[in-house]
Amino acid sequence: MKLSLTLLWTVLLLNCIPAHNLIAQGQQAPPTDVPTLRVTSTLVFVDVTVLDKKGHPVVTGLTQNDFTITEDKKPQRIFSFEAPDTHVMSTTPGSDNPDGMAPVTVFVLDLLNSSFQDFAYIRYEVRQFLMTQPAQLAAPAEMVVVGNDSLEMLQGYTRNRADLLYALDHLPAALPYKKMNATFSWERFAQSIDALQQVALQNKGVPGRKNIVWVGHGGPGVYLDPMILPPKAMEELKQYVHDTTNMMVDARISLFVIYPDLKVSGGISLSAMDSDIDLGDSDPFAGDINFGVFVNETGGKLFFNRNDVDMEIRQSEQIGSNYYTLTYQPQDQNGEADGKFRRIRVSVRDRNLRVVTKAGYFAPDKNAPFDPRQQTMAKLSEAAQSTIPFTALDVNISRVVRHPDTRTASLRIELKTKNLVWLPADDGRSTVNLTLAAVSRDADYNILASQLQRLTLSSVLPDPAHMPPAASRFTVTLRIPRKTRNVRVVIENEDGGRMGTADLDRKRIDAAPALPTPEPHLSQHRPEYVPPTTP
Q1: What pLDDT, in 10s, does the model give residues 269-309?
Q2: Which residues have CB under 8 Å from 426's CB, separation 6+?
Q3: Any idea which fold 386-511 has?
Q4: In sequence order, which residues have a C-beta less than 8 Å from that of residue 15 and are 6 or more positions away?
Q5: What is the 3-state secondary structure (H, E, C) of 459-519?
Q6: What CATH number has the domain spanning 5-36+99-325?
Q7: Distance between CA atoms of residues 324 and 256, nearest Å
Q8: Domain boundaries, the chain
Q9: Helices 185-203 & 231-250, crossing angle to 10 degrees?
């Protein structure tokens, strides 16, 4: 696919779906807070899966002395070593993962990049996999759905299989209209990579390995032709994927992508080809940009052209759960912050064994521009987790309706037009772009479920900022897991950065009227919310 300059700038300027679980601590304005792997002052963690000739994980018989690490061909001294049996959780019912020693799994169901029929198949196969698991999972897992205009965490980390099945069974249907319309290709690309960034942001600073099992295409493959791109645009796009790589590496994330029996032209896709290629020590994103490259970068695996999705999920978990952890401190402590790729290679003495691990990381770039998308992510994360109110925007939850059959609640949100930053539209109207995040939190303010979407308000007035304050009303449906103690809604004006919050305690939710969940609406277009033009 050749890159359209117009579409490229759409991607670079688009703040689409900028958050999801929102657990991570937010980072504020200075560009130096952009998450990177600070190798000049920290240990580098390397999670290594060792496979025998048949592709089975080797979990015993290897010691620290069997491994060798190089960074940019320079030998590194191994600082610490953990064998696979260190990463096994207690079998005590109800035990969690307090020290982060066991790996966790993030199931990402890709509605955005899958046909309606394929997504139905994805749901079925994921359910088949879960049904084969014990009532208490071996390690915590969460479930996320990437949709047309939202990124929803159906279920936060849990070891309760029933919670994951319940969330999966009550996922409403929707038509993937962006997949059906080729003009959304680059927007889907940005949304898909932003989803990876959000899982990384959620897990930043949390110890242990995280395995993303992404079921679906992932973002569309991209072929970059430097001849048709201005240098500035090329550099910005490269920085975007470099930052994503570092966020995932820093959070110790491995990406496993599963194509659910999707036949592609020629029998193989760009992602599948790039997931097996070795580019040596060069920048892995110098050519194609797709999920196959991210798989290589993070030590995961891509499965394609098979119809046993449940088995592929099982293999992903097996590879991602049976691993050694090595750390080292780079020998060159004064390395330049040049933004170049640093190649990590791990080998073992026994040449009959194969090592699977991340390919490397990108050094910090002192000249990298500030990314407003990551600033938005951090601000939303901080506001959703915080206990203090944000009042720059006037947000209120005016009505609540419970849906006990799906363990959800519909919240009617009111937003006063005061303080909004309106932009002129081509048709003479004025518009304002908003990001809305609704989260269910437990007693410790951990996120149990979330719903995030973008909203566009429009007005027929050319300058609505000078009209008397009016209220826009819209509804968001949020899952209310059993441990929910409060709900917080966060709205940010994307263009002005102003933010408002509204809180709801469990007592008010339980006292709300109960109605059956409405039948799902198979939306085929992005909704637009039109506020009143008079007070």
Answers
A1: 656 556 666 666 677 777 777 787 888 889 888 887 667 78
A2: none
A3: Immunoglobulin-like (2.60.40)
A4: 372, 373, 376, 433, 435, 454, 494
A5: ECCCCHHHCCCCEEEEEEEEECCCCCCEEEEEEEECCCCCEEEEEEEHHHHHHCCECCCCC
A6: 3.40.50.410
A7: 18
A8: 5-36+99-325, 386-511
A9: 30
